[in-house]
Amino acid sequence: MTRNGYSRRQFLTRAGVIGCSIAASPLFTPMSFAQAPWDKRLVVIILRGGMDGLDVVRPVGDPAYAALRPGIATAGAQDLDGYYALHPALSGLLPLWQRGELGFVHAVSTPYRDKRSHFDGQDLLEAGTADLGQGVRDGWLNRLLQEIPGVERDTAYAIGTTPLPVLDGPAPVANWAPEADLQISPQAMRLAEMVMEEDPALHAALAEAQLLAENGRDGKGGRAHRQIAHYAAGRLKADARIAAFSLGGWDTHRAQHRVLPRSLATLQESILALRDGLGADIWGKTTVLAMTEFGRTARENGAGGTDHGTGGLAILAGGAIRGGQVSGRWPGLEEGDLYQRRDLMPTGDVRAVAAWLIRGMTGVDRATLENRVFPGLEMGNDPKLLA
Is residue 21 part of a domain? Predict the structure, then answer.
């Protein structure tokens, strides 16, 4: 038994849930593609570690914001609309914002609440269900593929060591991963994360190490995340219509002002590499959806970071979106407005964001999305996120 109570049997059992979150390590990030009968492209990026949406898109117009973040709200944020400001590490994406190719949905989350475990949160995010007790063993992107006629093994594939859980399931997919000088197995990394999860400082250090490893050079002289993005672009320019990959390093319990910019730089480079690789025509048909398992506490902690929270942020990019806006119902940051008086209150379901994007891109009907792709989801009104 480990110090946080995980036995070997518990680990192996847990690892079976929706194919498990083994892709938490960016070096093991698989990429999956699936050919589909529509002409739009969808790229889903799972941001592992609980991204602090309040730091990425800062509600500087909220009177309570500055008092909650006196140490980590570094200078240089770029004004978006007079109320929200963009973290300076994403300033390279401002031209996309100005062209309507970058947008955000604030205060969204999965139905996951209170336990604040990365593993539960990621499993639920990728399963796309209301809870993990429904016996669901496939991911929501795979369930979407199951609704599409004509997806065959030779046209839907992934390259890599393990499937991405969001694409895990009976529909055929393939995996791919960049070459990397990796000395630890996915199972060992998963176990290390479980052991360290109860210790925020250790877990944050592991997340930072993962990010540094991801940013290290791959076996071909490039950055692994850029190679992933370039490969995705190449496939999406051909027959593939869906790609998914993950980026780690978002667990910022300490020194957030130093850690978060590196993660944001990786995300920014990935998005720009996708755009450059796709070219103007295909980029104009593309939607990128970056989503995370949960947000973080509204107040910074004593270590200059933030702890696991609830309400988070979805990031949209691509020529197919109606960008240049921060969508979602803003709940406010006064103490009485916070979830459990500590987290950004979630006012929207991030699964609905994905469902409406899929609805607009593919024409899949609402009943299928609410009953089979995201079982039990109520999509609500169309937020009109697509151009």
Answer: no
